[in-house]
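Worked example 2:
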Amino acid sequence: MSNETKPYAIGIDMGGTNTDIGLVDRDGHCLARKNLPMCRYTEIGAYVADVAAAIHQLVADRNLTFSEIAGAGIGAPNGNFFTGCIEHASNLVFTGVVPLAKLLGEQLPVPVALTNDANAAALGEKVYGGAREMDDFIVITLGTGVGSGIFADGKLVYGHDGFGGEVGHTILHPGGRLCTCGRRGCLEEYTSARGIVQNYNDLCKEMGVEPHEGADCQWLSEAADRGDETAIRTWVITAEHLGIGIANAATTLAPEAIFLMGGIIQAGHWLFDPLRIAFNEHLLCMQRDKIAILPTQLNANDAAILGAAALVQL
């Protein structure tokens, strides 16, 4: 049985707080899952052993064999598809270059592949989501950071070293806010969760009003629903930043659609309505009204697992 006909895959979403592991069928249903809190681990060997044990348990619990599993895909911060390594991820306890695909592959009887989490998101959208019939599209992940996965001419863009397609780290404001990557003015610093809160705080200072203590993106959405002008304006400012950033990407790539995913899109029309306006304003005239901006078509609870599983089911 070839990988193309094997009915199941394992998806592993590795984050700084948790690792979620799921058994996925070819229709994009997450049939079962396990969670490993990352606070348990200080060294990679114990982590890999527990991930492998969880996968063996998922397969056994469904009365399956590994002959029915296409492989295990991992989506991870700073994951390099070419090397199978996590390289210098700032939000993981495992520092330096970690050959995670190789280490896990030594404990599983199926192929193991790894990529970064945003590329995995794009793969998930292609295999299971709204981009099934598209060859050219971009997925933007909006959360703690701003990630992106790009499909061009039907292929995921990796670049020559495995780190291509970082729209979130394109420079929006030269000399602007200090980014976690060490440079200044990256799109991420104006459209990630922390960037949006900073937009709000800056706006409050400009307007001479006291900011709400503990404001986050959920509060800003709820405040906008209540008619709070600073919250509404914060979403407009955020949309303007994001609109410029993704219009720049669209100018280069001419995608059919741009999909947004991550908790920030729960802001709904407060984000999407001004974003579509700002995006079109900054596009080349021949691209206007041709490129859709859409929310992900993947279930939010399973999206990261599906993306990782797609790595071995595409």
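The chain has nine helices and 13 strands. The mean pLDDT is 94.
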